[in-house]
Design brief:
With 216 residues, the protein is α+β, with helices and mostly antiparallel strands. Helix content is 46%, strand content 16%. GO terms for molecular function: aspartic-type endopeptidase activity.
Amino acid sequence: MKKIALVTFIILLIDQASKIYVKTHFELSKFPNDSVEVFSWFKLTFVENPGMAYGFEFGGLLGKYFLVIIRVFLIAGMVYLFKKWLQRGESNYLIIPMAIIFAGAIGNLIDGMFYGLIFDHGTVYDETAKHWMPYDGMAKLVPFGNGYSHFMKGCVVDMLHFPLVDWTVPESWPLIGGKQIEFFKYIFNVADSAITIGAALLLIFRKKAFPNGLEF
């Protein structure tokens, strides 16, 4: 259990430190976004998303509540599985990738559950417009419970942006002339990266992670 706790702690520390720094030092409403170019292929670009990983949204405010609840149940289920796997002496090829995924899931859950309680500004849902509304300026940390919103109404902070390809199609091209093509256009965070890396490691080492097949 110590290695699970260590992996989870390190990833959560990096994830939350990067989110808090970006949220308190970048302005959300700048157009197109508050962004700092680190390299030509890597930027820190501040966005907030109320839904799933990589900026996807799901069903407005009710969808947000649903996702938070699902994440809580998934994390609880993973704790149960960790206990079983450790008792069975499962290898690190299973335990470590799952711990990385576990940390990523907790990282985004923290944002959704608590960021509305600890920051003075954040993206909020407008019931009239049925749309998530951004804010002006930089956010500040405030005493717990004195934030801009309520429990489970916070938004996930994203900042990792890798525009490896950023190209405008020549106007002379039929149908798609003038279109902007960007890869990778999605902006994400350390928690999203952890989930993706953990899943990739399980896929790469699946024969060693699951020598007897998928058993729970």
